[in-house]
Amino acid sequence: MIQMKEDIENTSDSSKETRSVFIGAKVTPTQKEHIKSLAGQCGMTVSDYILSRAYNFKPKARLTKEEAVLLQNLDDCRSDLVKYTSALHGMSTKQRMAMFNQIPFMVNWLKELGNVAESVCQFLNAVKEKNKIPSTPKSEEE
C-alpha cells in the first residue's frame, strides 16, 4: 500500500500537490459495490484503487484469512526444517546412519516431507496467479 501511494504521488506534477479535485463516473449500484469490493480486497479506498488503475498499476489483493494461515504454516514448516537440519548436523555420522537405516522412521519422515512439499507447491501456485483485470459484469439475459 505504501509503494502504491508513492507511485501515485510521483506521477503528479508537484510532489506537494494534494488531491482535491473530484472526478465522477456514473455506474450502476452493482458496479459500485463491485468496485468497492475490489478496492477493499486490496486494502485501498475506492479513490486510491481507481487512480492506481488509471495509472496502469495493478494492485494485488491482500491475503485472505485462510491464505494468511497457510503462510504462517509455511513459515512454521520452514522453522521446523531449520531445526531438524541443525539437529542432524549436531549428530555424529554414526548416529545419523543408525537413524536413517530405520525403515519405518524413514517411511514416515518421507511421507511428512511429501505433505510439506505439497502444501508449499499449492500455496506457491495460488500466489503465482496474476490479478485479473475487472471486466464489465455480463447481464443474466446474455
SSE topology:
Layout: H1 2-11, H2 29-41, H3 46-54, H4 65-90, H5 93-100, H6 103-128
Helix pairs in contact: 2-3, 4-6
Task: Put the structure in a nutshell.
With 142 residues, this protein is an all-alpha fold.
Which features characterize this protein?
single chain, mainly alpha, disordered C terminus, 6 helices, 142 residues, disordered N terminus, 0% strand
Taking Cα atoms only, what radius of gyration do you get, to the nearest Å?
25 Å
Show unreliable segments: 1-14, 131-135, 137-142
Shape: elongated
Q: What percentage of amino acids are in beta strands?
A: under 5%
Biggest sheet details = none
> Kindly, what is the distance between the CA atoms of the first and last residues, rounded to a whole number of angstroms?
37 Å
What does this structure look like?
The protein has 6 helices and no strands. It has 142 residues and is mainly alpha-helical. Helix 2 packs across helix 3 (46-54) and helix 4 (65-90) runs antiparallel to helix 6. The longest helix is centred in the middle third of the chain and has 26 residues, at 65-90. The protein starts with a helix and ends in a 14-residue tail after the last helix. Residues 1-14, 131-135 and 137-142 have low confidence and may be disordered.
